[in-house]
Amino acid sequence: MHHLVEKNIFGTLSRMLPPVRLISSTGEEAWSKMQYLLLIYGNENHFNQMSPAEQEKILQEYGELSKSIANSGHLRGGNELDRISKAKTVRVRGGKRTVTDGPFAETKEQLGGYYLVEAKDLEEALVLAARIPSARWGSIEVRPIIPHEIPK
């Protein structure tokens, strides 16, 4: 397995993901902790309207949160997404591909990033989500991951 390490708003992250299913000593599959995707939604303009000092404080909070959940063993990955002005939406209808600028729908909040975390249950994942700074002005969607093996 390769270990991809990068630095971004979330701090230093590794993208090597352990499996969610574990094999017990008897050879049977045993469920351990579940993985959850914490989808971070907010209005890009909210961050842009902050002073540089306020922006730096938020970035520092994200770095501290990332370090904390990494040290606790919950963090499995995460990334900040680039501006919606750089997004494209692809649709295929009747075999024809169309590409439009921006996200799929006009909304007041845009997907700005995510954390992939491992938690013992939904409640623990919700507690982690509430610690994300953007929850104060945006929203955090918590979704369980349904694991699938990577085809060989």
Tally of extended strands? 10
CATH topology: Alpha-Beta Plaits
Mean pLDDT, as a whole number?
Answer: 82
Q: Main sheet?
A: 4 strands, antiparallel
Whole-number tally of structural domains: 1
State the name of the first-level CATH class: Alpha Beta
Rounded to the nearest angstrom, the distance between the terminal CA atoms is: 14 Å
- Any idea what the CATH architecture is? 2-Layer Sandwich
Strand content: 35-45%
Number of helices: 3
User: Which structural class best describes the helix and strand composition?
Assistant: alpha+beta
How much is the radius of gyration in Å? 18 Å
Low-confidence stretches: 1-30
Please write the string of helix (H) and strand (E) elements.
Answer: EEEEEHHEEEEHE
Strand order of the largest sheet: 6-9-5-10
Overall geometric form = flat
Kindly state the percentage of residues in helix: 10-25%
- What's the name of the CATH homologous superfamily? Dimeric alpha+beta barrel
